[in-house]
Amino acid sequence: MSAESPGQKSGLKSFFSNALRPKKSRQTLRKGSRSTTDLRLAARPSVEESPPMPDLAPLQIHRMKYKAAHENLDTQLGERRDYTDMIHSLGCLDADDNFGPAEIEDPNREPGEGDIAKLSSSLWAAIAWYLNPAEAASLAVSSITLYRRLGRRYLAALEAPENFGYKMQFLIRMDRSLPHHLMCFPCGRYHTRTQEGSERLRPAHVLNPLFNCPEATNSLNPQSRTRITHGRMLPFSFVQLVMRAHRFGRGYGIPVDEMGRRWNRDNWTHSSRFHINEGRLLMRVTSQTFAAPGLPPTAQRMLLFSRDDYWPYFSACAHWRDGELMPMCKCALGHIPEPRNTGGLQGIEHKVKDRWAGRGFDPNSLTTLCGFCRPMRRCPECPSEYLIEVKLCEDKSDPRGGVFRQAIVVTRWTDLGDGTTPDCLEWGAINGKHNDYDSFHHYSKRGIASIFEAAFTADTLPGQRVISMNPKKTKLGEQGDDWY
Prior knowledge:
The chain is α+β, with helices and mostly antiparallel strands. Among the domains are: 117-173, no CATH class; 260-339 and 363-479, no CATH class. The chain is built from 18 helices and eleven strands. The chain has helices spanning 12-20, 24-27, 39-43, 58-69, 83-92, 113-117, 121-129, 133-140, 144-150, 153-157, 164-172, 236-248, 297-304, 325-333, 344-357, 425-430, 439-442, 448-454, and strands spanning 181-184, 189-192, 225-229, 232-235, 261-265, 268-277, 280-290, 376-378, 384-395, 403-415, 466-468. The strands form three sheets. A seven-stranded mixed β-sheet has the order 5-6-7-10-9-8-11, with helices on both faces. α7 packs across α9 (144-150) and α8 crosses α11 (164-172). The N and C termini lie far apart (118 Å). Residues 1-55 are annotated as: Disordered.
């Protein structure tokens, strides 16, 4: 055994010194040891044996080649662009204002009347022959030269009874030029606004003319309007004013925020609000009234229907008789909790059962609707959606104060159209004049209620299924008996 071996020493001190002494195998891997060889250098192959390493990875080389091949390619248009030609073309051009962007109203622009006058009247008449009466009249009044070439015959053709629709199309295009006038569709002309800037919605029994029209008292040719609730109508003129203000400015009509109203009538409380989305006017009407529990069918009819015209007190479209709207309201009234009869032996039995089960009647408890009256309903023939709810509301008319009662709440969302003409698809559908409207096709991705509520609050409506108000597609009208 060598002299450096720890086995030659004995004793407790030498034992601990040998135990804590590093081993030789560990010393050979330490940096700076001359007696040992570097394993990393030993594992590395020699220069003569290793192949030459490329400067870049193959994937990076492929990316650089692709970038060099497509660096002159416009990613938006797909066209090749040569910056050298562009710089040379800019250097050859002189600074001139004529190369500025084109403007709609350029005072230095040369008039094109000379080019229009080069064509004969017969040639312009041949061009107008391919247009409908409204387009031909618009072409004739576009400039003084065209008016001299085409004459007044195309404007006179709009006065024919068979061209009344084309006349409306021609006059509607002049809305931007007439801020102080309003289009009257029954007589087909513009009238001066008599309440400019102060137009307000009034009840149906209040005379509220927006202009002086000779056809105002003609019951055979009335102004177009739709029903909001019992005793409240929405004339199409107000839809015109709101949409004109949205398109051209406040001077052309009234802002949409000033259209909302709150009113009470026949023990019903109503509130309306309007919103413009994608060029169309949306309306929400919420109606509620207090309802007693356990109403018989006759009392339910007295609560829901008006005695004047047998329409519902709340807002409804022209198709409310067809389908399940009124059965839903009656079903919701049946869910209002009714107190038990506590008189007699039967009442004592109920008391014992309630006390044994640990429950009791609470008139202020929340009401849960069933699967028939809880979902949101959409009219398949017009853009209208309905939601029936039973809520616990405070009765402020009670002299005792702080009294809460169950109330039925009916909310309707509807699309009133773009406000250009009463013949538009949405306005005609809610009034029952268009039978080719499919609401589930027009609002297949998002409902009217979702669009409306998302515009005013970050919160969303409770998760409700939107199903058809008339799943069987029955069209009985007043002949049916389920609506009453």
